[in-house]
Each structure stands twice: as structure tokens, then as C-alpha cells.
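#lab-general

N.A. 3:47 PM
ok so I finally got the sequence cleaned up, no stray characters, all 117 residues accounted for. can someone with queue access submit it? mine expired

B.Y. 3:52 PM
send it over

N.A. 3:53 PM
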Amino acid sequence: EHLVESGGGLVQAGGSLRLSCLGARFISSVFNPLHMAWYRQGPGKQRELVATVSNNGDRNYTDSVRGRFTISRDNRKKTIYLQMNNLKVEDTAVYYCHGHGSRNEYWGQGTQVTVSG
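B.Y. 4:20 PM
back already:
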């Protein structure tokens, strides 16, 4: 896998988790230009875009997570993060890391986040 997620788990509503996505098989010259994102797919739902961070650090969020989630990247570590605070039951989903460049796109295998009420 080019992208390997970690950090998922079970947490109570109101709690926090931090997801990580390592570009395990990339060299820096390939990883750094990638636009990166987190997607999620909840039970019975379509996959949706959660947050993006461009190759120059610009960030965007879907409305439902803005103010609670923070996406970041550390190019030296070839890693992106998703800090998730004040988690809600409706945040329960498999979270996927995604990267795309001018010619290719990459997906991770996903990490499960379960928020209990």
C-alpha cells in the first residue's frame, strides 16, 4: 500500500482521536506535490470528502466537521493527520486517506472510527 492509515478506534461522544496516514512507499519528491485528503464512509452511506490539504498547505473542510477536525501534513515524515475533537455518533465511519497528483491517485485501506453515544 502506498498510503497506510492508523489511529482509528472506539471513543465516546465528545472524545478525540488523531488519525495518521503515512506515505510508506513514496519518496519525498513524489509525496510533497500530492494534494491529500481524508474521506469517510459511514454505515449505509456513500463515501464523502471530509477534509483536504493541498501541496502548499491550504486546507478545506466539509461543513459537518469544520471547527472540530483539523487536517495537517508533515512532508518530512510523509504523513498527514486528522485531529478529530468533540466527536459525534454520526462521525462513525471508515476513514480513508487519499492522495492525488497530476497523473495518479492513491487510496489507503481505511481505518475504523466508532463513536458511542
